[in-house]
Design a protein that fits this description.
The protein is mainly α. Helices cover 69% and strands 0% of the residues. α2 packs across α9.
Length: 215
């Protein structure tokens, strides 16, 4: 990336490079929030869809065997819907992170990998996102009936003879998977801007991320 940013006849100033990185992050995060917060943003994306937790796979399998597969599927769909609604809250957190980027931050991103900006965001915003996401996800899960659906499934499973009883908290799991999906999409957006000229939708992006001229 450093070569791409500096690969012009006239080297770009540090200020221009930082502005370009901020622009790339702003564009990437807008696209990420739009993609994940729409209906089906998680549920219809196999890369980030939230499945039944691994610890509940045996429960899900047992319930499907006794004809409750549709209720398991509904529970999965509700978890993903809650993540989609919560994703709308990511924008202001990301914007704050963009505004606070320093020259030192920009230099580290320049010298980093193709997902260095995403890694920067994750380090800077995860704690804040968790604080914002947790009550929102819990609220949306309550409104959508996720907790009730899970409790009903858990109750039916625990009625099955000779199965190990379970007691699982799904809220933290959905928050974790929602954030994983958010950053996975953001990493994809970052790579598009780095590698695909068509993804550079502003003049500043086209200038800063220009491909070095052939020798």
């Amino acid at each position: 990336l450093r070569d791409a940013l500096l690969g012009s006849d006239k080297p770009l100033s540090v200020e221009t490079i930082v502005a370009g990185l901020k622009e790339a992050l702003a564009v990437g995060t807008r696209n990420t929030v739009a993609a994940t917060s729409k209906t089906g943003g998680y549920n219809l994306n196999p890369e980030i869809r939230i499945p039944v937790p691994d610890k509940l796979e045996k429960m899900a399998g047992a319930l499907r065997k006794i004809g409750l597969g549709s209720q398991v599927d509904k529970f999965e769909g509700q978890m993903n819907a809650a993540a989609e609604l919560a994703a709308k809250e990511a924008a202001p957190v990301f914007i704050d992170a963009v505004k606070s980027m320093s020259f030192e931050d920009a230099r580290a991103i320049l010298q980093g990998s193709n997902t260095a900006a995403t890694d920067y965001f994750r380090a800077r915003t995860s704690d804040d996102l968790i604080k914002r996401y947790t009550p929102i996800v819990k609220s949306q899960m309550s409104k959508l009936g996720v907790v009730t659906a899970y409790e009903q499934l858990e109750g039916r499973y625990n009625e099955i003879p000779l199965v190990p009883k379970i007691n699982y908290q799904v809220e933290d799991y959905v928050v974790e998977k929602a954030l994983d999906g958010l950053f996975a999409v953001l990493a994809g957006e970052e790579q598009k801007i780095r590698e695909n000229p068509a993804a550079r939708t502003t003049e500043l992006l086209r200038r800063v991320f220009a491909t070095p001229p052939k020798q």
